[in-house]
Amino acid sequence: MFSLRTFTLAALTPLLVVLLCASLAALLAYPIFLIAGDGIRFHTLVNRSGHLFLLLSIIPAAKFFSLRRGDIGVGNKSELSRQVAIGIPLGAAMLALHALALIALEVREIDMDAWSNINRLGSIALKALGIGLIVAIIEETIFRGVLFAALRKTAGTVAAVLVSSFYFALLHFLRSDLKPAPTDVEWNTGFRIVGDALSHLPALDPSSFLALFLAGVFLAWIRTAFPVGLGYCIGIHAGWVCIIKTTKAATNGVPSGYWSFLTGSYDGMIGYLTAAWMSVLILLLVIRIRRRSGPEKDRKSPDGFAKESI
Fold this sequence. Notes:
Radius of gyration: 21 Å
Largest sheet: 2 strands, antiparallel
Number of strands: 2
């Protein structure tokens, strides 16, 4: 049964964790900066520290909610690798169609200079895939792994999908424009950077936020359809990042284009068109989940996990 109190608690707890991680990053960045010197920019140190604390927070969270590997969607290593290998081309295909639509609508145009050096473009694509895998492993472990599992256990599947997707989208906009020079860094500079990042959230681009939120919903429903399928989420997410970064390197935005409003200001790639595309994919996925809700969902494989296919 739906409980407003339970849902509210589930929705606010991640916010407290994010604020705690940001505060720790702001507090510890200064002494680390004094020790390390100006070899690393202070705002980068605050940003990376915040991400690290957020990643480390999954350890006590997993213990508190008694989450096992299967609860966060991870089976054995070979199955995880297989899922990632399947997910990457699926995610790449999804965003490649989106990128082609942007080019067809003249929202983005092909950069002939970039295409004149295929080797360099190929190198960019490989680098983008590597970055995509790192980003996907971190974000999927946090949002579709531990956070989704904890929310599902305490507040139900719908709350897990909505709340995890909300924070997945929101944290993409937690960025500060303050980049203090080494001589301007003081003990409270980290807190000013965190405060500046939080102050930008009310002005976030709604089209980009909606696109990221629905992307999170899609990945969360993947976890619902395949309980031990976090690898699919990692692979799909990595494929998305790879295509986005490669497309941005191979094309240029057309701000004056008639359909340019379909992309937001976040990265010039995602926006209302992405949201529409994700909505279609979510609908298809929900239909697939309902079709699988028959007797086949109870079949078990020898290792104790439900048999899956994608």
